[in-house]
Structures are given as structure tokens and as C-alpha cells.
Design goal:
The chain has 449 residues and is α/β, with parallel strands linked by helices. The protein folds into 2 domains: 261 residues, Alpha/Beta hydrolase fold, catalytic domain (Rossmann fold); 174 residues. The strands form 2 sheets. Strands 1-2-3-5-4-6-7-10-11 form a 9-stranded mixed β-sheet, with helices on both faces. Strands 8-9 form a two-stranded antiparallel sheet. Helix 4 crosses helix 14 and helix 7 packs across helix 8.
Length: 449
């Protein structure tokens, strides 16, 4: 079946990747051949003669198949604001994909080796309005437009490729299906079917409820860690403390350790870190430097500010987010650390305190406020076009996904014509990373090409 699939996809891709005007370099790794591409793209695709950015993509093929006419698979990373997977060996989902594809790993604009978005660079652009105006070009619609230019450069105008979208990359994949279905031979989505019409408030009402269940599991598995976390929260209420980078350390920062709770391996590291919370043998309770460093590592957003600045904008279409995670939390009093009762860790939520005075992101707080207030975000999904979809689509939906709610994902699957869904409770949101070959095989079985 796989040979037949590869043959059909290779024809759909209109042959192997052809020469293109990209700036391209080649290198080798054991068992792999890599071509690394840099492409200039408009900052604003509606103004192609204006400012430009560079986007980087790494094309990977098995050394023993580099001369074959293989179809192309474009991987769209989760995030927003994270670089694509790095391929160093024929292992994991990349190794499985290389059995039948050339894999293209795109660093979405602003990430990795593409023109970066950093705090210092944003400040250099001018005031908060200038920064926000720049950042509005870093959503899924712009990422898909970049991918289209890359596709033409690699495959030619008529070439098509298959998408593999993980989490936020799945959001981008649905935008791709909405805008350029003619460019796609198929789409595979893992934990990333967005609600087509759901706003940020609706998403957070779902995810707070999901996180309450994740917290209950943490409390059951690691009761001593939870007890320690509550001691830390009480200590923070009595002492004005800062993390090693100078950022204020308060209960909200502690709760944000729950960001990883939706992963299969996300509970234990938090419990392990809490074991180190207090210095043993100190005359008075004192948080250890090792613990503070670990919290800083979990809480820092300055290395990928796109995530903090644009996370709620993943959900906004023609409306403002107005700090949805902060507002909706008031509907879930268990997450209020001042209310008493067991401490609840929060999930994939960004709060105004991330940009507070003394934090690494404080210089771009004004831009964050402008983005949260902006209400003219264009639509990302075309429901009518998706209802007429002819591109084969297979989507893995995690039953208890704390980041992309199952209910919204299944509603969207029903609205994408021909979308084959695979719902499982055996895997968590990191299924592609944890069990890549299994996930890829299951999606390919459901992809009707």
C-alpha cells in the first residue's frame, strides 16, 4: 500500500523537487541528505513591494532514496512561535515519513532561522502601535502565504504537497485548506483541528475545564508535590521574590508550571521540580536557587515572544481577545490562588502579568495591549470552501486534549468534507513526538488518496 501511495503522491507533486531560485545549501548527516533553503517573502503579502522577511526551510531525504521521485511532505510546527523539528537521524516521525516522502521542515516566519522576532528588535521598530502593526503579519494567514511561495519555488506552480500539521500547525493546515486547496495532495493533522467559529472565550471555557481534570490527576499521582506547591504559594504570599532573571515570582507564575500537563510526560517533571523547592537545612523556609532556575525556565517567554504576544490571536476572527484567558478565569474560581483550597495549575493561557514590569517582555507590553484590543483580525477559515473540500484529510483528535478541545475539533471535522477522524484516549497532545511512527501510520491509513 505504501509503494502505491508514494507513486500516486509523486505524480500529484508533479515530479521531484525541481531547481528553484532559492538560496540553497546542501549538507549530509549519517543516512540523510539535507538541502537548506532561504526564501525572501513580503512582510505583508497584500503589499508585495514593501518590506521583506526571510523564511528558512530544511528539506530532508534518505541518502539511499535521494535520486527517487518522492512526493513532498510539508511539516507545520505547533506554537505559535516555535521553530520546526530538527532532523538529525532517521528516527521518530521524521524517520517514518522519510520512508516515502521528502520532508520539508519550515521555520514559520519569526522563528528558528527565519527572520526572528525578538524583544530588542520589536523595540527598535518604534512605539507600541508600530510593534503591533508589525506583529499582525505573523498569524496563520501569513504563514500559509509564505508556504505557498515556498511550494512554487520547490515544486513549480502545478506541484502539490501533503501537509502534516501538529497542534497550531493544524490550525495553519485548516487555513491552507481554506485558501489554497489546489496546492495540496492531502493533509494530516494531529491535535490541531480548531473551532472554525469559536472565539477565545469559548476556547478557554473548554480548556479551563480540561485543566481541572489534569489537576485532579496530578493531585492523585503526586499528592506530596501538590502539598509542596501550596507551601510555595503561601511563601510567595508573604515574601516579595524574584526569579534569577529579575522577573517577579508570584502565585500566577507558579501556576503556569501546568502548561505541560496536557502532555503524556508533562506531570512528572513538575513534581520533580517541586521536590527541590525548599533548601533543606535552612533556618527559615527558603526557596532553592535550583528551583527558581527551573521555574524561570518553565515561565520564560522571551525566547519565543510570538507565543506570548499572539497566542490568543490564534482564535480571533473579526473580534478582539481582550485578554480572554484572564477574563474567563473568573468563571473558574478553583484557579484563583487566593480563594483557598487545593492549588490549581493553569494551562496554555497567557496572562497580562507575563508583560509586567520587571519581566523580560515588559518592553513590549504596549504592543500586547494593542494586539489584545484589536478587533479587525481577518477570518482564517472559509467554512463554505471547507464544506466543498476535495482534498483528502485525516485528523487525529486526542480525547482529553488540554490545548485543542475535542468538542470543537470534532465539530470542525464534521464541517470539512471528507475529513477522516481518529479519536484516541491512548495518546496525549504530544502523540506525534512520543509515538511518531504509530501516529503517522494511523494517519496515512485514513488518508484516502
Amino acid at each position: 500500500m505504501h509503494r502505491a501511495l508514494a507513486s500516486r503522491l509523486a505524480k500529484a507533486c508533479n515530479g521531484a523537487m525541481s531547481a528553484s531560485p532559492l538560496r540553497t545549501t546542501a549538507r549530509r548527516l549519517p543516512g540523510l541528505r539535507l538541502r537548506e533553503h532561504v526564501l525572501s517573502v513580503p512582510l505583508d503579502h497584500a503589499a508585495p513591494d514593501g518590506e521583506t522577511l526571510e523564511v528558512f526551510a530544511r528539506e530532508v531525504v534518505r541518502s539511499d532514496r535521494r535520486a527517487e521521485d518522492l512526493p513532498a511532505l510539508l511539516f507545520l510546527q505547533g506554537g505559535p512561535g516555535f521553530a520546526a523539528t530538527r532532523a538529525h537521524a532517521r528516527s521518530g516521525w521524521v524517520g517514518a515519513a522519510l520512508e516515502r516522502f521528502r520532508v520539508v521542515l519550515l521555520d514559520q516566519r519569526g522563528t528558528g532561522r527565519s527572520t526572528p522576532v525578538g524583544v530588542a528588535g520589536l523595540v527598535e521598530r518604534g512605539d507600541a502601535d508600530a510593534q503591533a502593526d508589525y506583529l499582525r503579519h505573523f498569524r496563520a494567514d501569513s504563514i500559509v502565504a509564505d508556504a505557498e511561495l515556498l511550494r512554487r519555488a520547490l515544486l513549480g506552480d502545478a506541484g502539490r504537497w501533503v501537509l502534516l500539521g501538529q497542534s497550531y500547525g493544524g490550525f495553519c493546515s485548516v487555513t491552507y485548506l481554506s485558501r489554497h486547496p489546489e496546492s495540496l495532495a492531502g493533509a494530516m493533522i494531529t491535535g490541531g483541528l480548531p473551532g472554525l467559529d469559536a472565539d477565545a472565550d469559548e476556547v478557554y471555557r473548554e480548556t479551563y475545564a480540561l485543566m481541572a481534570r489534569k489537576n485532579a490527576r496530578f493531585a492523585k499521582l503526586y499528592p506530596q508535590a501538590l502539598e509542596t506547591a501550596e507551601r510555595v504559594a503561601a511563601h510567595l504570599a508573604e515574601h516579595a521574590l524574584r526569579l534569577p532573571d529579575g522577573a517577579p515570582f508570584h502565585a500566577g507564575v507558579l501556576q503556569a508550571l501546568g502548561l505541560s500537563f496536557g502532555m503524556s510526560d508533562g506531570l512528572a517533571p513538575v513534581a520533580d521540580l517541586l521536590e527541590l523547592a525548599f533548601e533543606h537545612g535552612a533556618r527559615a523556609p527558603r526557596l532553592s536557587q535550583l528551583f527558581l532556575k527551573g521555574v524561570q525556565h518553565h515561565a520564560a517567554f522571551d525566547t519565543n515572544p510570538i507565543y506570548a504576544l499572539l497566542h490568543e490571536m490564534c482564535y480571533t476572527q473579526g473580534a478582539a481577545s481582550r485578554w480572554a484567558a484572564e477574563r474567563v478565569r473568573a468563571e473558574f474560581p478553583a484557579f484563583d490562588p487566593a480563594r483557598g483550597g487545593p492549588l490549581h495549575f493553569t494551562g496554555e493561557m497567557v496572562y497580562p502579568w507575563v508583560f509586567a514590569e520587571g519581566t523580560p517582555l515588559a518592553p513590549v507590553r504596549g504592543a500586547a495591549e494593542r494586539l489584545a484590543a484589536r478587533d479587525d483580525w481577518p477570518r482564517l477559515y472559509d467554512a463554505e470552501r471547507l464544506a466543498r473540500n476535495e482534498v483528502p484529510v485525516a485528523a487525529l483528535v486526542y480525547h482529553d486534549d488540554a490545548y485543542v478541545p475535542r468538542r470543537l475539533s470534532l465539530e470542525t471535522a464534521d464541517r470539512i468534507r471528507g475529513c477522516e477522524t481518529w479519536v484516541t484516549s491512548e495518546l496525549e497532545h504530544n502523540g506525534l513526538r512520543a509515538e511518531g511512527p504509530r501516529v503517522l501510520a494511523g494517519l496515512l491509513e485514513r488518508l484516502d488518496l
